[in-house]
Amino acid sequence: MFRMRPDIKNFYIERGVAYTEDREVVRQLTISGSRRFLKYQLLKYFSIFGKVEKLHWKKKKRSGSVLFYEATHAAKALYCTKHTIDGHDLYLQASTSWHPTPVEESGTLSAYDLPITDDIWWKVLDYLSLNERLNFAASCERFQAIYELDSHRINHVLNMKDVCTLTHRVIKRLMLLSGKHIHCVTGGPLHPNWPYLTEFVQLLGVSCPNLTELSFFKISVSLAHMTHLFDGANGLINITNISLRRCNLKDAHIYCLQMLSKLKSLDIRENFSIKGDSLKSLPISLEILNVSGCVDLSPKCLIQLAALSHLRELRCPGIVKFAKDNELYGRLAHYCPMLEVLELTDFMNVIQLGGLSRLHTLVIHSSAQLDYHVNNVLLTSIAESYSLRHLEILDSFGPMSDTSFDLSIFSQLKELRTLILHNQNFTTLHLMGLQKLSTLEFLDLSGSPNLSNEVVAKLTKSLSGLRRLKVDFCPLITRQLTKILEGNPKLQVDF
After folding, report:
1. Residues 137 and 86 both lie in one domain
2. HEC secondary structure over the chain
3. How far apart are CA 142 and CA 36, in angstroms?
4. 453 and 379 both lie in a single domain
């Protein structure tokens, strides 16, 4: 539990004794003053709180330390961190050490002398939290040996929820014992009072040579953090997958990624201040890019992805400033011919994707800025991508009244396996246009207000390869549909 920030106070007092955040009893205090006090003045003053064992004072530097015989005496002095001697200020904090001297008690046994097998220690390891494991390892040599042997298993993935329970010193211990075993760091948001993100990211690059995946969510990442992580001399040069979703990134942050020659996947969704100028700096090795919901990103900046010759997946729905013309699609086809997966928001009810010969997955989101509906021009444009295996047209704004479309156009998609069409006014005639999709395995018609049990039964009879049907939020569909389709045991129906 982090009761207070160390830059304000680095201790807390409980039952008359001061403790550091690592639960160490405080007897020694650090001193800093506004003037060059004389040593006898300080000794006389601190004697008010209890017996002083040792006092160090560097007059020129105006700093030093005082060691009390009793922890309760030190706590009395710490009840107020600002003191006044002869009209001048004096400041106190708890004195901590990164390498405390272990205290051995006479008559104690080493853990190696105890009649406990390693199997029992391993079971203890599984029951403890990350913080408890590391603290136990620091106090027990045998347990530390067990921890290090099993570190490759328990620390392969490091969750920020667990990291947020660690103090600075325990973070350093984690990196020392387990850094080489960490392959993935994931999680967020952070504990609101945890102050060690900077120290943590500084150690990642130095201590985790095998780290290949970093995934932060709702963690405010500063430019300094990005530099420590990716752009410094000790950056994560072996990283292949980065996800920084809702991390308050700007274009300046993205420039820090340009030297990551092994980067394959980048997810920077919902960072609302990215304008896109930095996309030209992304490493050429990038294969997957997700900029969904980056509402301030200019669509023209997507053309800067031309340098990414290996880019095969682009997800960019929710870009508010999306160009209302077809020029972008043509340029994507020209500059990114390797695209296999494309997710976008269509503003014009028409897209031109004929040049993307490798495209096998297409996801189209509707726009809230116009009356969006499926039409024959849109369907014909989609049908130009003969290699499509997965198609989604997502209308999240409710069913539209327009019915001037012919789903039989999709019969040109000979490789189509998955078809998802949400919130459309399908009639029986419309749906029968899908009968020639012999390769279809999954069909999702959720949100279709006119879809009935009888229509579904007639359609599925024609689609012999269909293995799953989803008809959520269809008011005319009833439980009777399960009995109607009993003759097709291979078909799974979700409603």
Report:
1. no
2. CCCCCCCCCCCEEECCEEECCCCCECCEEEEEECCCCCHHHHHHHHCCCCCEEEEEEECCCCEEEEEECCHHHHHHHHCCCEEEECCEEEEEEECCCCCCCCCCCCCCCCHHHCCCCHHHHHHHHHHCCHHHHHHHHHHCHHHHHHHHHHHHHHCCEEEHHHHCCCCHHHHHHHHHHHHHHCCEEEECCCCCCCCCHHHHHHHHHHHCCCCCEEEEECCCCCHHHHHHHHHCCCCCCCCCEEEEECCCCCHHHHHHHCCCCCCCEEECCCCCCCCCHHHHHCCCCCCEEECCCCCCCCHHHHHHHHHCCCCCEEECCCCCCCCCCCHHHHHHHHHCCCCCEEEEECCCCCCCCCCCCCCCEEEEECCCCCCCCCCHHHHHHHHCCCCCCEEEEECCCCCCCCCCCCHHHHHHCCCCCEEEECCCCCCHHHHHCCCCCCCCCEEECCCCCCCCHHHHHHHHHHCCCCCEEECCCCCCCCCHHHHHCCCCCCCEEEC
3. 48
4. yes
What confidence score (pLDDT) does residue 35 get? Answer: 83
Mean pLDDT of 145-171: 86
Query: What's 426's domain CATH number?
Result: 3.80.10.10
Instruction: Based on the fold, state whether residues 168 and 58 are members of the same structural domain.
Output: no
228-246 pLDDT per residue, tens: 999 877 889 899 999 999 9
Residues 398 and 334 both lie in one domain? yes
What total number of domains does the chain contain? 3
Query: In angstroms, what CA-CA distances link 383 with 179, 309, 362, 365?
Result: 50, 25, 11, 17
* 456 within a domain of the structure (yes/no): yes
352 and 427 co-located in one domain: yes
In a domain, 234, yes or no: no
Q: Are residues 71 and 123 in the same domain?
A: no
Across the chain, mean pLDDT equals: 82
Report pLDDT digits (tens) over 326-378. Answer: 566 666 767 777 889 999 887 555 566 666 788 999 998 877 655 555 667 77
Query: Residue 344 domain-assigned?
Result: yes
Residues 6+ apart with CB under 8 A from 254: 268, 274, 278, 279, 281, 282
Under the banding of pLDDT at 50, 70 and 90, the label for residue 402 is low
Based on the domain organization, do 120 and 195 belong to the same domain? yes
- Provide the domain limits for residue 67: 12-94
Closest CA to 353 of 385, 325, 378: 385
Structural domain includes residue 103 = no
Residues 50 and 121 in one domain: no
